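Work through this:
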Amino acid sequence: MSLLVVGSVALDTVQTPFGEVKEGLGGSATYFATAASFFTDVQLVAVIGEDFPEEHLTFLNQRGIDLAGLERNMGKTFRWKGEYGYQLNEAKTLQTDLNVFESFRPKLPVSYTKASYLFLGNIDPSLQLDVLRQVTTPKLVACDTMNFWIGGNRDGLVKTLAGVDILMINEGEARALSSEFNLVKAAKTILSLGPKTLIVKRGEYGALMFNGNKIFAVPAYPLESVFDPTGAGDSFAGGFMGVIAQNAGGEISDQTLRQAAIYGSVMASFCVEAFSLDRMRSLTQDDIKCRYIEFKDLTGYEYTA
């Protein structure tokens, strides 16, 4: 069954202590769709400008991503410029040029309105809600947000969350949304707003998944070389939702969610191994399967009383 993502496609300029990339392929929807494409069919809704390089469209097409919902408008493509220090946990934004993304109003192709799985990327909650209303009978809806929307359009975000099954945000966003410092307390508050599952992304420390009264800790895969953490959270979300959609027809059990979370961490770990989406260009199904198996050794233990 199809997985629909709505979000940003951008050109990123990123500098880390280990190198830099100028106007590389980026954007939340791009990372999500690319990661998810290793597991299921993906439909992408976003906007680009006249200057968007054809080579990037070729890459997305080669990944089998459906681009019927990708608008090309007059003007320049959304651009972001940032840098990371040695800790690599948080980017310092140097410049943001929304360009055509500023006036983006997602309009789904008719075929997209029947999507079974929907991921609402980090855009204005009012736009997220509008997209949600355009999809007729989604089986599962997940979304992302950020502090800017939590502080600037909280009412709109709360309305959107009422129709969302899974929310994926980072620690700071969870605390801002809930007004609770403790993540367990924060999760209870957020789940009361509508989502059945909350995933708190914690960068190099992995993620915590709160599903009802159950908590699942997902580690980040320990890597020898990390070049660029941009898009890691979106790649996690893409891997997670890709696995959920791949298991279409089956029950979305707690075990399914846990497996999806591990695959999410697997995809995030590949993302940070190179700048932009370069690691995804050479990634194989065997690479993904091997690292998934390695997570078993990383996290498994025999319980003894």
The longest strand covers residues 19-26. The CA atoms of residues 124 and 148 lie 9 Å apart. The chain has one domain: 3-299. The chain has a mean pLDDT of 94.
